[in-house]
Amino acid sequence: MQESVFIFNYNRARKAFIDALLPPKSSNGSPVMPFELEVVEAALHSRIQRFDDRLMELDPHVQALLEVLPNKLTADILEQLRISKQTLIC
């Protein structure tokens, strides 16, 4: 019985995966993203924009708390920071 070894070349698999996702070229020669990937990109962009808006809204409040924190470490300030963090996560 002859023994065989199969070697997985991840570079070839990655290229094959990308080639399967993207059509070769559009009419002007540039690669075209499939519609599904465009939808995912739009959804991610929308979600990131919401996170950015929340961050810009909370940033002044958090900066003020962080400036006070070294001089006045209280449970109230830590609780306000925790609530601010939770607001960003949800």
UniProtKB/TrEMBL annotation:
It is a multi-pass membrane protein. One of its GO terms (molecular function) is magnesium ion transmembrane transporter activity. GO terms for cellular component: chloroplast envelope; membrane. Coiled coil: none annotated. Keywords: Ion transport, Magnesium, Membrane, Transit peptide, Transmembrane, Transmembrane helix, Transport. It is found in: Membrane. It comes from the Eukaryota. Belongs to the CorA metal ion transporter (MIT) (TC 1.A.35.5) family. This is Uncharacterized protein. The lineage of its organism: Eukaryota, Viridiplantae, Streptophyta, Embryophyta, Tracheophyta.
